[in-house]
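Dear Dr. H.,

I hope your travels went smoothly. While you were away I took the liberty of generating a structure for the chain from your last submission, since the lab meeting agenda had it listed for discussion. I wanted you to have the full record in hand beforehand rather than looking at slides cold. The sequence, exactly as received, is reproduced here:
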Amino acid sequence: MARSFTGKVAIIQFPGVNCEYETADAVRSVGLEADLLRWNEDPVLLEDAIGMIIPGGFSYQDRIRAGVVSAKDHIMDKLSELAGAGRPILGICNGAQVLVESGFIPGIHWERVDLALAPNVMEDRDGYYCSWTYLLRGGTDCVWTMAVGAEEVVPVPIAHAEGRFTTDDGEVLGEMKKNGQIILQYCTQAGQIDPAFPINPNGSIENMAGVCNREGNVLAMMPHPERATWLRQVPEDLGGGWGTKRKKAGGDSGKMETAGPGRIFFESLKRWKEGDA
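The corresponding predicted structure, in token form, is as follows:
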């Protein structure tokens, strides 16, 4: 029987990614179907998928720099076609790097790389950094943040070495601001934007944690929502309401399997699919 992605979310599996199964489970947690599509399968299979996600990991071992080899893969031509037709696409961590390297994000000048995800710049250290961060929604409408409230603070973990959104083109940055494309920003537990480490964990300009295209259907985000999909994944010592909720759930296996903060991004896709803005 031929494979079909009709009504499913396709998780794009490049060689070296390591979050594909967790991401598929996160999609299924909101009642959507998900399946993996490997980089060397027929991209035509994507035509009936409701959306695509490029998960985190180290595609092609991050040779040259993170995401750049995958960005040149022929399957990205089909994703470009579908993105142009309004199909939702999410890139998480390494997936975000692929979208930036391919020019999907910010998508101001298609087929031109206007933005970079550069090595982290942190206080007294550099390189790989793994921690929990707080995110604040900004910008305009985006498929992947439909369920996130305007003042809602969402804790989600990061784990990367090249996650600093940056550009030396002031015109591009100005366009991104005007278009409302800075859709997620690192913030304090109280929702304040602070450029200092560790609030801004990698030195991203404008505290960028997630950037969407102008049309709002493609999102590149460095934090890992699939690693915060269940309450059991939340650290007990995390500050704020989610940490308190996690502590209270200790010893109750049923409560531990309830929704975590990161599920809201996948719930947003479900709302989009159901036409509930």
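Two observations you may find useful: The mean pLDDT is 94. The first strand starts at residue 8 and ends at 13.

With kind regards,
E. W.
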